[in-house]
Amino acid sequence: MADTTGEFEDPTLAEQVEEYDRLFGIVGDGVVGAAGGLVGTALMTGVLFVASQLGAFSFESFASLAAPLGLADTARPVLVGYLIFLANGMVPWPLLFAALMEYLPGERPPVSGLFLGGALWTGFVLGFYTGYTGLTLAVYLVFTFVAHLVYGFGVGLVFEYLSNRPDSLV
C-alpha cells in the first residue's frame, strides 16, 4: 500500500483514494446543504406565515408549482407545491451556495447567505405575486425580502457551524 514516506506505491491506488476523497466531499457538501436548506426554508416559512396573517402572502400560490408537473389536480395541490418548494430550498439553492460561497460578499457564510437570499428573492417576488396593490404590495415586498434574507442566513449559518466542527463534513 504505502511506503514509509506515506506515498502510495501503486499510482492507481493513489488516484482511487483521491477520487474517493473528492466524492466524499461532494456528498458531504450535499448533506450539509440539505440540512442548511431545511433550516433556511423552515425559517423562511415562518416569515411567510406572518405575511399571510397580514394578508400579504397566500400559501395557495404554492399550488402553481404543482401545475407544470401535472400535479395540480391532486387532492392537495398546495401541499404538493410546498413540498416542491421545500425540495428546491434543500437541494439546488444550497448547492449553488456551496459553489459560490467564497465568491459572494461577506467574510462569514451567514453574511454571504444574505446575498444569496437577496438574489433568490428577485425570482420569488415575481413568481409568487398574485396582484397585491397599495400597502399590501409593500408588505408583500418587505416580508418576502426578509424571508429570503432569513433563508440565506440560515443556510450560511449551518454551513459555518458544520465547517468549523473538528469532524467537519465540509
From TrEMBL:
It comes from the Archaea. The chain crosses the membrane at residues 31-59, 79-101, 113-132, 138-159. Keywords: Membrane, Transmembrane, Transmembrane helix. The keyword Transmembrane applies. This is Uncharacterized protein. It comes from Halomarina oriensis.
